[in-house]
Amino acid sequence: MDVAVIGGGPGGMYLAILLKARNPKHRVTIYERERPHETFGFGVVFSDATMGNLELADAESYHRITERFFHWDDIHIHLRGQILRSTGHGFAGLSRQGLLDILADRCRSLGVKLTYQDEVQSTDRFGSADLIVIADGLNSRSRDERRERFGTSIDLRPNRFVWLGTTRPFSAFSFFFEENEHGLWRAHAYQYENGHSTFIVEATEETFVSSGLSEADEEATVAYCERVFAEALQGHPLLRNKSVWRRFPTVRNERWYDGNRVLLGDAVHTAHFSVGSGTKLALEDAIALADALDGHEALEDVLQAYQEERKPAAASLQRAAQASLEWFENTERYLDTEPIQFGFSLLTRSLRITHEELKVRDPEYVKSVDRWFARSAAVQAGVDPAVSATAPPPPPLFTPFRLRDLLLENRVVVSAMCQYSAEDGRPDDWHLVHLGSRAVGGAGLVMTEMTDVSADGRITYGCAGMYDPRHIGDWKRIVDFVHRHTRAKIGMQLAHAGRKGATKLSWEGGDEPLPEGEWPLFAPSPLPYLPYGQVPRPMTRADMDRVTEDFVRSAQWAQEAGFDLLEIHLAHGYLLSTFISPLTNRRTDEYGGSLENRMRFPLEIFDAVRSVWPDRKPISVRISATDWAPGGVAPEDSVEVAELLKAHGCDLVDVSAGQVVSDAKPIYGRLFQTPFADRIRHDVGIPTMAVGAISSYSDVNTILAAGRADLCAIARMHLWDPYWTRHAAFELGYPLPWPDPYHVLDRYRPRWQ
User: Fold this and answer.
1) Across residues 612-617, what is the average pLDDT?
2) Would 723 be classed as within a structural domain?
3) Label partner for 311 (CA 20 to 30 A): which of 2, 439, 492, 540?
4) Domain identity same for 82 and 211
5) What is the C-alpha separation between 196 and 95, in angstroms, rounded?
6) Pick from 264, 180, 193: which is nearest to 6 by CA?
């Protein structure tokens, strides 16, 4: 096979090595636009896991790399005179030029042809090649061709950074945070060879402009950064190498190949330097492409297999990199947290490193975090901390939390999940078992499903309600069971379906309009949820008054039934949510237009409910933090929504997202909604509940200890396992008491020592 590789970076050269090592008959030529030994940057970073992959792929290159790399296990976080230390991480740094030299020598020994100072303007020049590998990074002449062929998109991030070096040898991967009159400066530093380290400086655009560095040359940049980080550098100079201020470009591609052309490395994806994975991704791309060539004969099958393997893996890492870069873009948000929590938040910023993984790497560090968190939780809850210097602290999820007079024994919440199993809105045995079993299962708080305040406010015929006097006793039976037999608390979520009402049961076709027997719908504006759905009539003032009365009556009846907490549903495209989103609220009166106006009716509902709900009991509100649709509510709007709710006495914001318009394009993934809860909690200063793809107790512990939320609502995992919390307690060795009828199980209770 005749292979043309455009780009002599690590990914392109590593692919050439693998191809020639596995099949010497391949003819591989690399075309590099720069001269030999001319590269930017200083060092690259590999995790121990990545090094293991390299050893399996090409032992010769691996051994050459290990002869030159600098290995470390520790991470040091320098903040306001403190050094926060964590160990057991396992990384290796290597000179970028050293890596290129190793790979170039290996290429030559295998017969790969290397050509330098040859900039490829178009891949058309390689008409005779069997395979054209585009591995020349972001800034190549073929960029326009890539956009057309592969659907390339580039997200240019707001922060500024500059890639510098220093002669100071760092013993750990070190993060420095320094403030001056212009703002906060971050530095990412690591040693890559004896006497040399990478030193990346980063700042927000506001800080960068304020400093005057937008007009500075490399020399002035070095001088300024040496002053800011004088203590970190300890007299060592900063070094420059094409050290210009940049904004990080996140590159994505819809397609990874076209015909016989295939993308690799930074040409197809980038991952922020804060996760140190750009070179790792490129080398793993090379391994996957070489493996695909070994496993398939037809080129189309080869490239399809390569894309199917690597695209999901790269997307997963890019999601982690996105969370990491956003943490550094918003570091100012976390400066007021306790240093120990700041450090834990930094270490888990990508949402991939969890509490349990850190416990394996550095158990003493995690124990110190848990001890601090337990004491802080006890203070917040107003209870005896019961944390000694010698006994292990409880895991974060098993710490108490207080909202007004409501004390939750742990931070696990059974999320509100519609069951569509009621008749005339009446909860029955199904609801008793559904909620009761999960309360027995150990959760601190169980939430009813979305409970409608009127018959015409239901989503389906099977939705539960609190609009008929009979509902009081039906719900009280369930509340009494939870209170009598478990230590859990129970909350009711009140809502009105609005334009998403009169639909089929979820298993018959969720959101699909009823074929017959539908009831009239109303909404802020006459816009159907589905294009072929029922068009709601626009609400009048009389409609608003009636809905307000319905919410008030339902809240009063919820109090009669004995509920501990009330939640008002302002999310997911139901009635009150559609007032908030500009995509669903086109009103021209005082209830439309600005966000303040769009929030007017939801706040009227909140105030009316708060006025009749006992002052000692809390009220939470569920919101959609983003519509995931152009022109809709964005995360920054949700901050303003939360500020308005806080001003009106809201106790907790339950932060969900999406489901407001039918053509939304949500971005799913592990903990995909947690960053919204994190932002609201810190920017607004209000307790939040995280929800969305939270599945493990380790995720819950991580979210809580990092300060991303105060409670975690878990839905699907509670459907799968009603005893999720008890299983978490068992796995963590925490003694969660059983109800008296199950006292025999106490003999199997893990010992907490």
Assistant:
1) 98
2) yes
3) 2
4) yes
5) 9
6) 264
- Residues 318 and 455 both lie in one domain: no
- Are 291 and 413 found together in one domain? no
Q: Six-digit token pair at 181?
A: 């009159």
Number of domains in the chain: 3
| Lookup result for tokens 């039976």 | 477
Please pick, among 14, 574, 591, 734, the residue that the annotation labels catalytic: 574
* 8 A C-beta contact, residue 274 and residue 143: no
Structural domain boundaries, residue 344: 336-381
Q: What is the mean pLDDT of the chain?
A: 94
| Residue 650 placed within a domain | yes
| Helical spans, DSSP H, in 139-296 | 143-150, 205-211, 218-228, 230-233, 278-295
Supply the DSSP symbol for 513: B
605 CB contacts (<8 Å, ≥6 apart)? 547, 548, 551, 568, 576
For residues 305 and 426, state if they share a domain.
Answer: no
Picking from 595, 550, 591, the residue whose alpha carbon sits closest to that of residue 458 is 550
pLDDT at 38: 72
Residues 373 and 290 in one domain: no
Q: Among this protein's residues, is 574 annotated catalytic?
A: yes
Statement to judge: residues 254 and 294 lie in one domain = yes
134: confidence class by pLDDT, cuts 50, 70, 90? very high
* Domain termination residue (choose one: 328, 353, 371): 328
Reduced to 3 states, what is the DSSP secondary structure of residue 194? Answer: coil
392 within domain boundaries: no
Residue 751 has a pLDDT of 54
Q: Is residue 246 part of a domain?
A: yes
Of residues 337 and 143, the one with the higher pLDDT is 337
Give the global pTM. Answer: 0.93
Shared-domain flag, residues 269 and 361 = no
Euclidean distance between CA atoms 571 and 580, whole angstroms: 9
CATH classification of the domain holding 112:
3.50.50.60
User: 444: closest CA among 473, 419, 408?
Assistant: 408
Q: Are 175 and 232 in contact (CB under 8 A)?
A: no
177 and 229 within one domain: yes
Return the exposure string of 365-398: e unless at least 16 CB atoms fall within 10 Å of the residue's CB, then b.
bbebbbbbbbebbbeebeeebebeeeebbbbbbb
Burial of 553 (0-12, 13-18, 19+ CB in 10 A): middle
DSSP symbols for 358-424: HHHH-HHHHHHHHHHHHHHHHHHHTS-----SSSPPPPGGGS-EEETTEEESSSEEE--------BT
pLDDT bucket at 140, cuts 50 / 70 / 90: low
CATH value at residue 570 = 3.20.20.70
Is the CA virtual torsion 62, 64, 67, 70 positive or negative? negative
